[in-house]
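Please complete every field before forwarding. Incomplete forms are returned to the sender.

SECTION A: IDENTIFIERS
Entry label: holo-437
Bound molecule: pyridoxal-5'-phosphate
Molecule representation: SMILES string

SECTION B: INPUTS
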Amino acid sequence: MATLFDRDAAAISTMAHLRFHPQAVVGGRGSRLTADDGRHLLDFSASWGAASLGHAHPAVRAAVDRALSDQAGASYLSSANLPAVELAERLLARVPPRARGRVWLGHSGSDAMETVARMVTAATGRPRILAFRGAYHGGTVGSMAVSGHPVQTVPRAPGLDLLPYPDAYRDGGPEAASAAALAHLEDRLAGPVPPSEVAALLIEPIQSDGGMLVPPPDYFRAVEALCRRHGILLVCDEVKVGLGRSGRFNAFDHLGIEPDVVVFGKGLGGGLPLSAVVGPADLMNHAAAFAFQTVHGNPVCAAAAVAVLDTIDAEDLPAHAARIGDVLTAGLREIAARSSSVGDVRGRGLALGVEIVSDRASRAPDKRATAKIVYRAFELGLVLYYVGVHSNVLELTPPLTLTEAEAREGLALLGQAIADVEAGQVPDEAVAPFAGW
Ligand SMILES: *Cc1c(COP(=O)(O)O)cnc(C)c1O
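SECTION C: PREDICTED COMPLEX
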């Protein structure tokens, strides 16, 4: 009989595949997924952070059930609905005063970032956008056009200028990396990129798909000061690391900055498709009927998000993420100390990266070993994937509800996977069918 994974291969387009091993699941609860072969997998990805409260969280289930049992339409375009308004009110209370204007709701980080890119240029009349090399802001044409990740193949937006994101591990430590990145930005603004033409700078508070890069202290404060001086809007893409994951509600709180526009996604819907843009009223209300899709503001997804936000508060999940993140980080450092392939361990809270290198002295990225570790971890019962412009950074974005016992269990599995790969126990053929990215 064909496995679920085989049936998927025969029915689902590879255009949407980003596969690392033959994972096929039929259910899940909390931090566990049930595979179609009956195994219980420990989920250290949470579907790239989307299942922020884990799987089948009772608060999300109850909210969705209520919203669907007496359904206030399916859209906010042409009618107000209570869950969408409640969600917007909650999000407005969570951003700095300068961003506290209006909320736009979408389905994905991609449609949100695409809307932001169109909004800032249309509303300011300035044609250019600054973003970072390695940044992943989405998978639609408009969001890819303002991204800097090498996996994307569409043309960049005219006038987009991509900046180096400071990489403390590869660019000589935090201070040197920060100084070089800042000097680059100053040079661009003094020369080929006149600030009066720049509408906005798009930032990630941790550059996640680019390799879980944690910016050096004070770097973004200096960037913010430059933006203020030149009237450039600061847009913070909190899609992957926001909403408590970093150990604070907003990941930009670690940076000591106050963005003008904040973008939420992934975990916002607790597993349902949902994103949000929060920004000042003059931007967000600059035009009517400017950016909408039919079931945007869907009350069912919005109700799920209200439940997610309320649960984050009720269970103080930012503090929990910080505490469990410390357990994971300490454990990962122990693994690094006894391994030959772990070059760096970094991150904040439950947004962690482990950089895999073929040689710790040269720091040469080892994509193949990374793919094998992810594959071997899956065989052992742990789900995680990898990111990075060199495809060599293990990404840990488990549910915010991960327990300490689950954290320790996952560490043991990951340590075993890394040791097995270092011992040559995973053949090249095992990972050959999985393209990853
Ligand atoms: C995933 C991601 C996006 C895109 O979100 P989708 O839900 O995949 O459309 C945008 N920005 C960041 C930082 C992301 O991690």
